[in-house]
Amino acid sequence: MSKDTFYVTTPIYYPNDKLHIGHTYTTTAADTIARFKELQGYEVKFLTGSDEHGQKIERAASEAGVSPKQYVDRIVDSFKELWDLLEADYDVFLRTTSAKHQQVVQHIFKKVYEQGDIYKDKYEGWYCTPCESFWLERHLEKGKCPDCQRETEWVEEESYFFKMSKYEEQLLEHIENNPEFIQPETRKKEMINFIKDGLEDLCVSRTTFDWGIPVPIDEEHVIYVWFDALSNYVTGAGYLSDEEEFNKFWPADVHIVGKDILRFHTIIWPIILMAAGLELPERVFGHGFLTVEGGKMSKSKGNVVDPVKLVEDFGVDAVRYYLMREVAFGTDGSYSTEAFIKRLNADLANDLGNLLNRTVAMVDQYFEGVVPELGPTTDYDEDLKATAQKELQAMEANMAELQFSRALENLWTFIRRTNKYIDETTPWVLAKEEDKKAELGTVLYNLLEALRIIAIALKPFLPVAPQKIWTQLGIESSIEEQSWEDALQWGLLTAGIEIQSGEPLFPRVDIEEYFANQVESEAAEEEDSEVETVEQDLISFGDFQELDLRVAEIVEAEEIAGSDKLLKLQVSLGEEQRQVVAGISNYYQPDELLGKQVLMVTNLEPAEIFGVESRGMILAASNDDEELVLTTIDREIETGSKVT
Length: 644
Ligand code: MSP
Description:
The chain is an alpha/beta fold. Helices cover 44% and strands 18% of the residues.
């Protein structure tokens, strides 16, 4: 029985920061293949989500002075906004903090423990918090994490261990018997070598922080974040919650991930599944990284490319097209705004946009906007038709291999062939001769038909333009209903319908003008921030009144073990005493705070920060983290007084 479902996933991203163009790249690829499979008639499930536990998130939250949950909630909203903007049409947004997921992770952990594949011991070794990854001494590169080149920390703690080594042979066998399992081929060898080097048992629990799913048999421990995160793919398919759905979609057809986390997906994840008695995904594809000017994107270098700005400046279609077209899927590629604009102008504005404009204008001019009948044909017509068939078949084969860029090349070969067909058949010459009306009809019919096919084939890549082309072609049935089959057939357009000429699809962007405007707006922004006239959203007086601001006196202050920034304070509000956590230890010694009267927001939701309860927030003025001073009052006043 042939399979008619398709399950594709992105990594679930860490909500410790805003997402950038690199994350957008993965999600766009997953959405594109999901849409393509849908077009082919598959029932598709597309999962994305957020990986919310672990030390990295706990630290980021404590630095921001809020609880981990409050912290991730805000960032997860921004993920969803980005995916909406990109029109990434996911079916499941999996949050690892959901109860359903917690149940799955605990169930798998317990099962594997009970069958003797998890045991308790002591972990001593290196840990990379940004990657949430354990390393052996021999793996480190000059003491740093071999994946991200950042500092690692020495960790010594009691832990549960997962017997990865037991499954080594079984995994190697699986990889050998399933040549499609790890892709691309170049990365497969790297993974095989890693396994052959010998797998150590994996530490799967932590005790030095609490932001995680508790180990079901030992509440002192939380489950190692990768064990938790990877299991998301089965939770999202319905494991333990919807058996029918799970049987329908599991195993996943493809996990799309970046090369940075291929190891977790092709070694740890399959072994967890083997131990849990579940099937392995069909394929894991580790794509390359987008770099900027040949280097890694990073906040400290200030070269992080914001997808939101790109969409605002150039539209969602152009961003998605560029991402899927510019770099072969599997290899690294460099992002540049200049290359982006060049692609937009050459491929979208010129090749595609002009084809539509010229065609529609000629149909208006020569046939009063009515789609003509197909008349006598020539070799040019046959060749155009044959090119459509050939390129669409090649496109289909490339999509099966996730070769997005090549698939778009195929489609553009057809688009360019169609433009050439105009030059070959010279409709403007035919139009001058009365007895050539039928031939002219053939040319314009074929051009419109080519555009019909192009619009359908573009659907997986561009969420906006295909509908616009459709509207201009004047076809009544919705483009939503069109299938890949409809693109493969030549001649489905009906003569006699009325086209509707419209705006150009992709206006050309002048590169120099664009950069000049950028420089100008950056300068204006800088000026604004210098004089501090940044425009703000105004709040009403009522909103302000909702804040309960009070004068508080600090009566006790102490450091929080394990944190670099936080102090635990006991404050008096007159009638009541409260505990709050404040991120001020780089600027104040505990002793100098005693007796100080400060301002405090008292009606903030309680939060747990670094395991310490915090009920309120002390106010301070800060200057981009370089300086921080507490807000105090001008003269002494009764503690607990309201600030209005
Ligand atoms: N939370 C883990 C994944 C758990 S999956 C069970 C994680 N999250 S992440 O937020 O760091 O996202 C990593 C992924 O983002 C990469 O694997 C890749 O898909 C994408 N990218 C991040 N930076 C990238 C580039 N510069 N270029 C291309 N993709 C990149 O790891």
